[in-house]
């Protein structure tokens, strides 16, 4: 990533302004498995933010950290929430707009034809 794109783009992690603001006014409180780093304000602990390791995408923040960021829980997720159960799935990022997005048969880009109608549909015809 080049100097200029890192300086002026907010969608590739954090800009120099965000780095400076975070360094001066933020305390790091934790990290998650995706590499996101979570901060809270030194003066106002209820002011919280996250810095992403790559593209900024809120769906990459796990639910427990979302709860902390929004103030639903006051303590950090490891302290406030019960341990993860074996039946719980790990959250996945939103795939909308990517090649991994779901495309039903007949949609552009799916490469498949829409299935033929079964004949049980009767359209409404006004009298």
Automatic annotation (TrEMBL):
Q: One Pfam annotation, family name?
A: NDUFA12
- Top-rank taxon of the source lineage equals Bacteria
Q: Where is this region: Disordered?
A: 84-127
Q: Which PANTHER family match?
A: NADH DEHYDROGENASE [UBIQUINONE] 1 ALPHA SUBCOMPLEX SUBUNIT 12 (PTHR12910:SF2), NADH-UBIQUINONE OXIDOREDUCTASE SUBUNIT B17.2 (PTHR12910)
Write the protein's name: NADH:ubiquinone oxidoreductase subunit NDUFA12
Q: Which organism is it from?
A: Sphingomonas anseongensis
């Amino acid at each position: 990533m080049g100097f200029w794109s890192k300086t002026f783009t907010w969608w590739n992690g954090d800009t120099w302004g965000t780095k400076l603001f975070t360094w001066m006014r933020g305390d790091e409180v934790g990290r998650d498995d995706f590499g996101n780093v979570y901060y809270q304000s030194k003066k106002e602990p209820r002011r919280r933010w996250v810095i992403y390791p790559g593209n900024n995408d809120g769906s990459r923040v796990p639910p427990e950290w979302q709860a902390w960021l929004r103030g639903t829980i006051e303590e950090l997720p490891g302290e406030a929430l019960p341990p993860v159960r074996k039946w719980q799935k790990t959250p996945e990022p939103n795939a909308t707009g990517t090649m991994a997005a779901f495309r039903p048969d007949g949609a552009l880009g799916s490469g498949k034809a829409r299935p033929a109608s079964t004949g049980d549909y009767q359209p409404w015809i006004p009298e």
